[in-house]
Design goal:
It holds the Pfam family Peptidase_S9. Belongs to the peptidase S9C family. With 770 residues, the protein is of the alpha+beta class. Among the domains are: 90 residues, no CATH class; 75 residues, no CATH class; 263 residues, Alpha/Beta hydrolase fold, catalytic domain (Rossmann fold, 3-Layer(aba) Sandwich). The chain is built from 17 helices and 44 strands. It has a nine-stranded mixed sheet, with helices on both faces. Strands 13, 14, 17, 18 and 19 form a five-stranded antiparallel sheet that branches. It has a four-stranded antiparallel sheet with strand order 5-6-7-8, with no helix packed on it. A hairpin with a 5-residue loop joins strand 37 and strand 38. The protein is globular and about 75 Å long. The two termini are 33 Å apart.
């Protein structure tokens, strides 16, 4: 249900706009605890001591106004603390978020990257700025001024002195294109560099891509398909002035993820650019809408971006992009994305589809940096299946041919990056719960691959233009938050120093252990064990975590939301099973869950719990709590109806889980999820396929206390799924609580809501598993 989205969840969770007044509604009834009144409000605080000890509450100070004058880094704040404390979600949110490292385009001796940071210590605001670091001296310089609520994003290092990027620093508060002019010696910079705004459109610019020789750029705005930027803005204003708020639909999608589809589309615009005598870039006055009059998005919604889905050719004269076929309602039950190319030298040239023979997904085109006619892209072969294996295709435009690389592999390629030589590729691949990096030597003659990074979770590869097998990337693990690393040609790896002061003042678990056992079908199944941060010398309760997807995995990754360390620091052991259906263990293992939602994964979870209790003797088998989100929430409901399993848990915690599969088949937005996963059936063609593993049919067996959490803007698993389950619990007089987030979607994005989420969950767990 959320295989891709959880893969990138860390970035989205902390890129959200800050809501000044947190809005959480708690509805509950402790039917078996009548001496305790229901909790009706939530404060921005979090108990931070291990389970079984007296909790200490940390209350955040409210900052009503902030600006650059009250700037404090997390390093300054944590250096001011005298004592260490157990890690908690507030600490997690205070971490600097680092992303998009790019090496110097000429000499590779330095890099620039994004750093997102929150207002210290209260998290009431965030800012994203550009930073530069010399890789030899380790000198670090913050280039752009931190202003709360202002976020720089999507930069391109044009040459040694010029960067183009997006920011909402414009006086209009709209996101526009800015230029940063760098001095020759950045190491001596004593203040911030004020960027120059070079666009002033009436709409936000959402994506930016510049070609290699800086003669053209592409950007996206949300426009009506048959209107330009200014016409769209005028129509939006007229609709606002009308005083009417009415949505009218003649096709699907009605809504997608957390947004109602009211006609606005992501369209790519192409403009020529030239540098003026003062060094500032100027754009041609009439941007060309590549998808004009086409009711479709590029980048695709909700998570597509220009970095992955757009590409300029080596000369900059051709442009490739991914688009979905949104013109009719079939978009809701198909996964057909296609790659298009357009020759920019001819003004009347229409985009040409190069993948339309494949009715499954084709996406992420990337032109060779040296060959004008060559591009690679990722491709599925099974229509309607978002979790199919991604393979890499090489398209030669001069001969109109396609070749599949590494066709005998059974792992899915998550991302690929050209080496500057135009012959080699860096590949990101999910492999046994790690996102690893391979290097493919030569796409033309030698398809041998070398494993460069074999553990943790790696993303955002940016190669050195001067040295093969040298690149910067982001890396994280269960034990380490995301950091930027340099991989050198000789195999050496080193990290930038970020978040060291914070990590030095928090107590974390130092161990994350992989284990395996014989699961369903007598096949090997893997899981994670993380011991409590306060040690294993005494019996400890267990947090038994069930991942969503279901075609996803508990990766060796830090996590901004479901962070293992957050549970460990509360004194819980953590067990997380990658059951049948999980990705990163081969496509057959992933596919095995189709038509088997409540069977193979359920058996794996039973056997995995047996293994954990038998092999980690410090775990108290009488104090076990199961928690799951999305498909993991489905499994919580399914377990609740199976007495042999539900009786093993003191309580259950469910975040946006699937309660009624038949209702889901008519109310979720992406119908291909439910239709594929029950065996490629619609509800009306084969109702029994939706009923065989439907939790709603087993409510009569429910006995265990349950906390249910829903987001009102969750259109993937609509809120009525959780409300229906809570109604069932209340009707059966079972101790239960509904935690309702009126402004959240499938995730919890607001940082204060995230703190409240953990506070409510841990309070519930302590109440029932102490």
């Amino acid at each position: 249900m959320d295989r891709k989205i959880f893969f990138y969840a860390g970035f989205f969770l902390l890129g959200a706009a800050i809501v000044l007044i947190p809005c959480v509604v708690v509805i509950g009834l402790r039917s078996n605890c009548s001496d305790k009144s229901p909790q009706s409000t939530v404060t921005a605080s979090l108990a931070t001591t291990p389970a079984g000890t007296t909790p200490v509450t940390l209350t955040n100070t409210i900052a009503t106004i902030w600006n650059e004058s009250d700037y404090q880094s997390n390093s300054q704040y944590y250096q001011s603390l005298t004592n260490s404390h157990y890690f908690n979600q507030t600490d997690n949110l205070r971490l600097d978020r680092l992303s998009s490292p790019q090496l110097h385009p000429v000499d590779g001796r330095s890099l620039i990257y994004w750093r997102q940071q929150y207002h210290m210590p209260d998290l009431r605001g965030s800012t994203t700025t550009l930073h530069w670091q010399d890789l030899h001296s380790n000198k670090n310089v913050q280039l752009t001024r931190p202003i709360w609520g202002k976020h720089d994003q999507q930069f391109t290092w044009i040459d040694k002195n010029t960067i183009l990027f997006l920011s909402n620093r414009a006086s209009s508060d709209l996101t526009q294109i800015f230029q940063l002019t760098l001095p020759d010696d950045l190491s001596s910079l004593s203040g911030f560099i004020e960027p120059t705004q070079i666009t002033n459109y009436s709409l936000n610019i959402d994506n930016l891509l510049v070609n290699r020789n800086a003669t053209r750029l592409a950007f996206s705005c949300q426009v009506y398909a048959n209107l330009d930027i200014e016409q769209t803005n005028a129509r939006k204003q007229a609709e606002l002035d009308s005083g009417r708020t009415i949505y009218k639909f003649d096709k699907l999608y009605i809504r997608h993820w957390d947004e109602y589809y009211t006609g606005l589309r992501n369209h790519p615009f192409i403009v020529s650019i030239n540098r003026q005598t003062n060094g500032i870039f100027q754009l041609s006055p009439y941007p060309v809408d590549v998808l004009f009059n086409i009711d479709s998005d590029s980048p695709t919604k909700p998570f597509g971006d220009a970095k992955a889905q757009w590409s300029f050719s080596a000369s900059g004269n051709s442009f490739a992009f991914t688009r979905q076929h949104d013109e009719d309602s079939s978009v809701a039950w198909t996964t057909n994305l296609d790659v298009y190319t357009v020759d920019l030298r001819t003004a009347t040239q229409s985009p040409v589809c190069i993948t339309c023979e494949n009715i499954a997904t084709d996406t992420d085109p990337s032109y060779s940096p040296t060959d004008e006619n060559l591009l690679i892209y990722r491709s599925h072969s099974v229509p309607g299946y978002e979790s199919d294996q991604y393979k890499v295709k090489v398209y030669n435009g001069s001969m109109n041919t396609k070749v599949t690389l590494l066709d005998n592999w059974d792992r899915s390629i998550q991302a690929m990056t050209w080496s500057p030589n135009g012959q080699s590729l860096y590949l990101e691949i999910g492999e046994e719960a790690s996102n690893v990096i391979y290097y493919l030597e030569n796409i033309y003659t030698n398809h041998s691959v070398d494993l460069l990074i074999d553990n943790g979770t790696s993303h955002n590869i940016h190669p050195d233009a001067t040295q093969e097998r040298t690149f910067v990337f982001t890396y994280e693990s269960i034990l380490e938050p995301a950091n930027i690393y340099l991989y050198s040609w000789n195999g050496s790896i080193r990290a930038l120093n970020h978040n060291t002061a914070l990590l030095g003042k928090v107590i974390l678990s130092k161990e994350a252990e992989k284990f395996s056992f014989m699961g369903a079908n007598n096949e090997t199944v893997w899981g994670w064990h993380v011991p409590p941060a306060n040690g294993t010398s005494q019996k400890a309760p267990l947090a038994f975590l069930i991942h969503g997807g279901p075609q996803n995995s508990w990766y060796d990754a830090w996590g901004s939301g479901w962070n293992f360390q957050s549970y460990s620091a509360q004194g819980y052991a953590v067990i997380a099973i990658n059951f049948h259906g999980s990705d990163s263990y081969g496509q057959n293992f992933t596919d095995s869950i189709t038509g088997a939602y409540g069977s193979l994964p359920y058996e794996d979870l039973k056997l995995g719990l047996d293994y954990a209790l038998a092999n980690f003797s410090y775990i108290d088998g009488n104090r076990v709590v199961a928690l799951g989100a999305s498909y993991g929430g489905y499994m919580i409901y399914w377990i609740a109806g199976q007495p042999e399993m539900s009786s093993r848990f003191r309580t259950l915690v469910n975040h946006n889980g699937l309660f009624d599969m038949r209702a889901m088949g008519y109310s979720t937005e992406e119908l291909f999820f439910t239709e594929h996963d029950v065996g490629n059936y619609t509800v009306y063609d084969n109702p029994s396929a939706y009923e065989v593993y439907n939790p709603v049919n087993y409510v009569a067996n429910w006995t265990q206390p349950m906390l249910i959490i829903v987001g009102a803007h969750d259109y993937r698993v609509p809120e009525t799924q959780g409300i229906g389950a809570f109604t069932a619990l209340q009707r059966r007089n079972i101790t239960s609580r509904l935690l309702y987030f009126p402004t959240e979607n499938h995730w919890v994005l607001n940082p204060h809501h995230s703190i409240a989420w953990f506070e409510e969950v841990f309070n519930w767990m302590r109440q029932h598993a102490s």
